[in-house]
Give the backbone structure.
Amino acid sequence: MGAVNSVASGDSSSARSFQVGEQLTYEISWLNITAGTAVMSVTAAGSDGARPLAKLITTAQSRPAITRFFPVDNRVESLLDPATLLPEHLMFKRREGKKKEDIEYLFHQQEGTVTVLKGGTAETLEMPPGTHDIISCLYYARSTLSFQPGSSLTMNIYHDKKNRKVDVRVEEIETVSGSWGEIEAARVLVIMPFQGLFMNQGNIRVWFTNDERRIPVRMKAKVIIGSIVADLVSGVPSAVMGK
């Protein structure tokens, strides 16, 4: 399975900004302390009849020094249709401190329902067609959002048994520095009404490379004390590094 085709709803003419085989590794820092590592990868996931499927996998682990007082070991897998970037199945294994949670969502996009599997019980609830999960929303915004400052989009995200409207807005095009050197990036504000993957207590900002790959090189979220920052340390193509 090659490049995932880029489409907003109803448009299959352009190329997606990411490919199967992509793997991005981030160093997570908190209060200027290296707290852990996160990895975001895209893999092939077979097919449903003639439809190829893709899987988005995100993991996050705390470093040993942090694990002693607040261990984190999370894994999220999102199975989706690459033609629409809409999820079909989400599996979330969350281990944060003393919190242990396993939850699955089965998305029935045509029917406008989602089945939640948690604690040995199943419950089917309503959702708007075209609903995203907490992983697919990032890849959808990455592929479809115009990077013109002031551009925006609104997504419906299903999480924790609730349908939530999430607004995404492009703030600025700016130069950012990191292990990759200096690159031009679009600073995008994600208005978050709930806690996502980064234990955020408010909005999240994402910096995407302002090129055809649109790689998220930095993510920053406010938490109870200070902020968590995820900086890309592996997975940047040499074409981006050379800019």
Notes: The chain has one domain: 3-241. Helices lie at 64-67, 136-144, 238-241. The two ends are 29 Å apart (CA to CA).
